[in-house]
Amino acid sequence: MTLTSFGPANRIQRSAETHPLTWRLRDDGEAVWLDEYQAKNGYAAARKAFADMAADDIVQTVKDAGLKGRGGAGFPTGVKWGLMPKDESINIRYLLCNADEMEPNTWKDRMLMEQLPHLLIEGMLISARALKTYRGYIFLRGEYTTAAKHLNRAVEEAKAAGLLGKNILGSGFDFELFVHTGAGRYICGEETALINSLEGRRANPRSKPPFPAAVGVWGKPTCVNNVETLCNVPAIIADGVDWYKSLARDGSEDMGTKLMGFSGKVKNPGLWELPFGVTARELFEDYAGGMRDGYKLKCWQPGGAGTGFLLPEHLDAQMYAGGIAKVGTRMGTGLAMAVDDSVNMVSLLRNMEQFFSRESCGFCTPCRDGLPWSVKLLMAIEKGQGQPGDIETLLGLVGFLGPGKTFCAHAPGAVEPLGSAIKYFRPEFEAGIAPTRAGDLNQVVTPTMVGA
């Protein structure tokens, strides 16, 4: 798997004007350490924010730029920042970076942390200044050992240079930053489960309200942002709102650029920084090179295992939240997966639902019991032992576990690909239903009976 930000046939080169996230990357894939980062204008945005901007000005600039969360939910970052209390007497606040990145088929944050650790630190430093947080944590997926090593080194470099710690840049502002390695749980991608885990508790999501901005880690105001989200902040502060908005393609309601990718049996699997609004077809054909010889595109997911399947005819959709919503699913993390024509959809869904079932925190009944139920039915269908009514039961579970039916978004994301797979490839599921025996009195479960 490679990373490149080059365009078709390498005609478009990375530059600070067009690739704010990746222009500093080294061609050899090695990490950019402090001296090189500063030589490439690193920490200039932080110096500008500390010298020339009040905290509220930073928040307003990020809000005006239209930056949205890059972890999958797409909530406006400036609005989220604005929820933090204005009361100056609350002097203990926290900034958390969600670096758990356990979404299958997603590795964008890993690249940023391994190769550009100081970009994340600068983004957190500016954000801490805006939010008046005195301490920050990077909550890192446990398996990301190289990222942990590089981030810890970068934190020490920043401390030695006076960019972290006490009286940063002579401003009187203090900010400590720590790398916290998690135990490897998908549910920690949910911000309140992350907070519980950071506190040493079981990683269950919390009731909201209260929201973390009011009652977060250790009961104090807390803001949680994704790695890629925070990495956008320096460029916005350095080059301004109008420039940032100009990066997106016409028609996109999302601003700036996005790390997007394609995996599967494509000729050039990889990761690229592209403007919001690029079509999925451009991403698939011009960057990923289309399918390998001998394979045909059957369907694709736009942004991780928790997004619905789309068909080849949907490739003309623009890659931004609203553009993908028009064809029936979510953009998610923006890293797409191509499914080739050799893949059986029942087997693929069984594998996915096993993952989501295993990663459920078990707190609420629909998720705890519904996901294993879907796995049991899919396993039977995969073996050709499905019973009449099993597909309807699966569709009923899709309804039972949908948005608003569970404690957090884990189950809705888990069943979205299941519902879309049955929608587009129902004959493959029907092929796994055993022939009905004469006199068979097994009850056929209908969607009405299971609440669909």
Automatic annotation (TrEMBL):
<dbReference type="InterPro" id="IPR011537">
    <property type="entry name" value="NADH-UbQ_OxRdtase_suF"/>
</dbReference>
<keyword id="KW-0560">Oxidoreductase</keyword>
<dbReference type="InterPro" id="IPR011538">
    <property type="entry name" value="Nuo51_FMN-bd"/>
</dbReference>
<keyword id="KW-0004">4Fe-4S</keyword>
<keyword id="KW-0288">FMN</keyword>
<keyword id="KW-0874">Quinone</keyword>
<dbReference type="InterPro" id="IPR037225">
    <property type="entry name" value="Nuo51_FMN-bd_sf"/>
</dbReference>
<keyword id="KW-0411">Iron-sulfur</keyword>
<keyword id="KW-0479">Metal-binding</keyword>
<dbReference type="InterPro" id="IPR037207">
    <property type="entry name" value="Nuop51_4Fe4S-bd_sf"/>
</dbReference>
<protein>
    <recommendedName>
        <fullName>NADH-quinone oxidoreductase subunit F</fullName>
        <ecNumber>7.1.1.-</ecNumber>
    </recommendedName>
</protein>
<dbReference type="Pfam" id="PF10589">
    <property type="entry name" value="NADH_4Fe-4S"/>
</dbReference>
<keyword id="KW-0285">Flavoprotein</keyword>
<dbReference type="Pfam" id="PF01512">
    <property type="entry name" value="Complex1_51K"/>
</dbReference>
<dbReference type="GO" id="GO:0016491">
    <property type="term" value="F:oxidoreductase activity"/>
</dbReference>
<dbReference type="InterPro" id="IPR019575">
    <property type="entry name" value="Nuop51_4Fe4S-bd"/>
</dbReference>
<keyword id="KW-0408">Iron</keyword>
<keyword id="KW-1278">Translocase</keyword>
<comment type="similarity">
    <text>Belongs to the complex I 51 kDa subunit family.</text>
</comment>
<dbReference type="InterPro" id="IPR001949">
    <property type="entry name" value="NADH-UbQ_OxRdtase_51kDa_CS"/>
</dbReference>
<feature type="domain" description="NADH-ubiquinone oxidoreductase 51kDa subunit iron-sulphur binding">
    <location>
        <begin position="346"/>
        <end position="391"/>
    </location>
</feature>
<keyword id="KW-0520">NAD</keyword>
<comment type="function">
    <text>NDH-1 shuttles electrons from NADH, via FMN and iron-sulfur (Fe-S) centers, to quinones in the respiratory chain.</text>
</comment>
